[in-house]
Amino acid sequence: MSKWVIAHLNGGQFDGKKLANAPTIQDMHLAHMTTGATPQIPEISPSDYGMGWFTESYRGHNLVEHGGNIDGFSANVVLLPQDDIGMVILTNLNGTSLRDLIANVIADRLLSLKPIDWIGQGAARRAVAEAAAKEGEKKKELTRVPGTHPSHKLDDYAGEYENPGYGPLRVQVSGDQLAVTFNGIATPLAHWHYDTFNGLKASDPTFEEMKFGFLTDTRGFISAVSVPMEPSVKEIVFTKKPEARLYDAAYLKRFAGSYDLPGQPLALSLKGSVLTATLPGAPPWELVPVLGGDFSLKQLQVITIHFLADESGEVTGLEFRQPGTVLTAKKRKQ
């Protein structure tokens, strides 16, 4: 008869239940890859890897396992194939070692082995690690460059950012500091050094102590934010999006009209929600929104158009900004 145990860990309370009439565990003889790790516990060999399973020797018994973790949950499936034992450990704790320690306790009981205080040993190791973490936290300021300031006012960092794989990220001003929202997780930010901000405590601790590094483009605008979302890959860069109104036809129509560039007229027309610029004898250029409320020429992106307005907000002209020169054109009155 196979022995299957489902173990639940709920708020630190353990409950194990043996299932009768469980399916037989087939013998598992796996080709495996040796990791060459050094044993940390004499009773358990270092894990090797084979066919999607971690394989090891547990107190002289062949054991295969594979676990998983996600925010707020940890689980593990443990098999002792030659002993016809299987375990599923489910917890509502994040990244907890109890997931593995409980499997050891259950295995000792089912194999009738002399019990080892796995939970006590694990608690002792955790206490040492927590003490070291607290000591290390006192030194976190060593990585901070003192006496620096942000390069822009806080409003310049605010906006909508986006990454093709990770989606949108929002930065906004909240009181006298910034706040970031990603995937429904809101976190206040405090200045760390230069243009890097640090995640503070929040109801969801995902971004606590995470560094958000803001980037500036050649025009001087905050253009992106770099975030270490994944510890094993390069920082994820979220690009700042131009203002939403620059895609709104109702807002863009104020720019349409004729402008007098030195020596030639420039006509701006609106097609749907896209502005186009035309010089005599030349094909039209499509205007693409960029940061700062300006536009670049889609076909010549080194050229930008900056609109001028009076105190009432009425457009009075534009600046045709090219590398090395800026040409000013007044808007003709209708």
Layout of helices and strands:
Layout: E1 2-10, E2 13-22, E3 48-50, E4 53-58, E5 61-70, E6 73-80, E7 85-91, H1 98-110, H2 118-137, E8 159-163, E9 167-174, E10 177-182, E11 185-193, E12 196-199, E13 211-216, E14 222-227, E15 236-240, H3 249-252, E16 257-261, E17 264-271, E18 274-278, E19 285-289, E20 295-297, E21 300-309, E22 315-322, E23 325-331
Give a structural overview.
There is one protein chain. With 334 residues, the chain is mostly beta strands. The chain has three domains: 2-137, no CATH class; 154-240, Lipocalin (Beta Barrel); 246-331, Lipocalin (Beta Barrel), CATH 2.40.128.50. 11% of the residues lie in helices and 46% in strands. It contains three helices and 23 strands. The protein has helices at residues 98-110, 118-137, 249-252; strands at residues 2-10, 13-22, 48-50, 53-58, 61-70, 73-80, 85-91, 159-163, 167-174, 177-182, 185-193, 196-199, 211-216, 222-227, 236-240, 257-261, 264-271, 274-278, 285-289, 295-297, 300-309, 315-322, 325-331. It has an eight-stranded antiparallel barrel. An eight-stranded antiparallel beta barrel has the order 16-17-18-19-20-21-22-23. A hairpin with a 2-residue loop joins strand 16 (257-261) and strand 17 (264-271). It is elongated. The termini are far apart.
For this entry, give a set of tags.
about 325 residues, mainly beta, Lipocalin, 3 domains, 8-stranded antiparallel beta barrel, 8-stranded antiparallel barrel, 23 strands
Tell me briefly what this model is.
The protein is mainly beta. The protein has three helices and 23 strands. The protein has an eight-stranded antiparallel β-barrel. An eight-stranded antiparallel barrel has the order 16-17-18-19-20-21-22-23.
